[in-house]
Specification:
With about 230 residues, the chain is of the alpha+beta class. It is about 55% helix and about 5% strand. It has 9 helices and 4 strands; from the N terminus they run βαβαββααααααα. The protein has helices at about 15-30, 45-50, 70-80, 95-120, 125-145, 160-175, 185-195, 195-205, 215-234, and strands spanning about 10, 35, 60, 65-70. The protein has a 4-stranded mixed β-sheet with strand order 2-1-3-4, covered by helices on one side. The protein starts with 7 loop residues before the first strand and ends with a helix. The structure holds glutathione (GSH). Glutathione binds near residues 40, 55, 56 and 69.
Length: about 230
């Protein structure tokens, strides 16, 4: 009997690191989908607000059901296609592996990510360097130990896991923006020196084709410069 192919639509914007998570998951799962780009520089249409009242991207429509919030979208996809991005619920090892991935994602986003935001929003070179140092310290203290067995991906996986799906779009930015001089190169020097496991893992993540699936460096650069200017003017 033929298996019904789910109908998937993604409302997205290719500059958005949160929406990028959904793209990485869909690419790694090799799932086809329709996409609609939402212009984030103009007010959302009443039609889009009726789909997602927060007006944000991403929004996933899966067989007519609406799923929002990037972590929930990505986790939903991991569960809808079990055993690829994380273990199926029937896998006896599943609960432990899932808890480790959840802890890694929590550690990165609750302990390190805020400092990266402060790097971009810093109003002086001194504040920027302090935020870089705090980011490197947080990665080395909180995230580095969790990547000791990465080979090359989380937990020894040779394919992307939900950990890379959720962190990949940010790792791309951390490893590619310094070469354009809009964040200090010292962030990469610091990570290489103080967080070698993270650095090794991140370099594999940032070059993976499914992580790079919607990455257009020129466009991201322009978008990030505009965002930095807005933050610095605030
Ligand atoms: N917590 C949300 C954040 C999504 C988000 O902030 N998306 C931005 C674009 S990167 C957005 O849609 N901004 C438009 C707005 O907030 O009006 C998620 O993870 O999905």
């Amino acid at each position: 009997m033929a298996v019904a192919v789910p109908k998937i639509k993604l409302y997205t914007n290719h500059n958005c690191p949160w929406a990028h998570r959904a793209h990485i998951a869909l690419a790694e799962l090799n799932v086809s989908f329709e996409e609609e780009i939402i212009d984030l520089w103009t007010p959302r249409s009443p039609e889009y607000l009726s789909i997602n009242p927060r007006g944000q991207v991403p929004t996933l429509i899966y067989n007519g059901q609406t799923i929002t919030e990037s972590a929930i979208v990505a986790t939903f996809l991991a569960d809808a296609y079990p055993g690829k991005l994380w273990p199926a619920s029937t896998d006896p090892e599943g609960p432990l592996v899932r808890s480790k991935i959840n802890y890694f994602v929590d550690a990165y986003f609750s302990k390190a990510q805020g400092h990266w935001g402060r790097v971009l929003a810093a109003k002086s070179d001194q504040d920027e360097q302090a935020a870089v140092n705090a980011y490197v310290e947080a990665v080395s203290k909180e995230v580095e130990p969790l990547l000791a067995d990465a080979k090359p991906f989380f937990g020894g996986s040779n394919t992307l896991t939900l950990a890379e799906v959720l962190a990949g779009s940010w790792v791309l930015r951390v490893y590619n923006l310094p070469k354009h001089g809009i964040v200090p190169a010292s962030v990469l020097e610091g990570l290489a020196e103080k967080a070698p496991n993270f650095d090794r893992w991140a370099r594999e993540v940032e070059k993976h084709p499914n992580v790079r699936c919607i990455w257009d460096e020129e466009r991201i650069l322009e978008g990030t410069k505009a965002w930095i200017a807005k933050m610095r003017a605030a």
